[in-house]
UniProtKB/TrEMBL annotation:
Annotated organism of origin: Bradymonas sediminis
Family matches, as InterPro entries: DUF192, Saro_0823-like_sf
Domain of life, per lineage: Bacteria
Name of protein: Uncharacterized protein
């Protein structure tokens, strides 16, 4: 009888040991999962994606470079995998209306969109630009605060004529960059694109898939 008690005692102790090991392994697994989750969250925050899918009223409600589309924080159009058919475009025309270059557009129309612009972007595809649209013509002034990539700034009047442009504007500076003449539009492109397409003052632009009230008036 005594031997039987000893046997069962050892069996019970063995089972308790197995359960203890299983619990330790489970705790380590939970800790590892927690570490992975925290790493993912940290990576999202570092890349500015922690606000994806959150509700917004204006672009200022979205962190980092995210856009506000249909009241939801989303990736900017130029950074998405595909280009919708009705995406706004701008085409430069040279002498005899010869095409010089065509770009897909992100539109900055509201004051909040004007203020944020291309801040926090680390890239801008060669075939994309951001077009700032104002209600009327005026002397425009821009700076590069919180802007990480060099940009070309192209100033365009209400008739669609290029009146001035600046090339390879230095990032992360607060120096005002001004138009030399009145402009209603300012197009920002990846630095160097103006030279690559041979842009000249006097070239004209046409806009497509843009609301009529924002279109050029030749």
């Amino acid at each position: 009888m005594a031997m039987l008690k000893i046997y069962f005692s050892r069996v019970i102790l063995g089972l308790l040991g197995v359960l203890l090991v299983a619990q330790v392994v489970a705790c380590k697994s939970d800790d590892a999962m927690s570490a992975v989750t925290q790493a993912d969250i940290g990576a999202q925050k570092a890349s500015g994606l922690n606000g994806l899918g959150e509700s917004c009223v204006t672009v200022k409600d979205c962190p980092s470079y995210l856009s506000c589309e249909n009241e939801v924080c989303a990736m900017p159009p130029s950074l998405k995998d595909s280009v919708p058919e009705n995406t706004p475009t701008l085409q430069f025309l040279g002498p005899q209306s010869a095409p010089v270059g065509t770009f897909y557009l992100e539109l900055a129309i509201s004051p909040d969109e004007h203020e944020k612009g291309l801040m926090y972007r680390r890239e801008l595809p060669d075939d994309w630009g951001m077009l700032f649209i104002y209600p009327d013509e005026g002397m425009r002034s821009f700076w590069m605060q919180n802007t990480y990539i060099p940009l070309d700034m192209i100033f365009i009047d209400a008739r669609g004529e290029v009146v001035h442009f600046l090339e390879e504007v230095e990032p992360l500076t607060r120096t005002p960059r001004r138009s030399e003449r009145y402009a209603r539009y300012v197009l920002e492109l990846r630095g160097g694109r103006a030279a690559e397409i041979g842009l000249k003052v006097g070239h004209r632009v046409t806009l497509n898939h843009v609301d009529d009230k924002h279109d050029v008036k030749p």
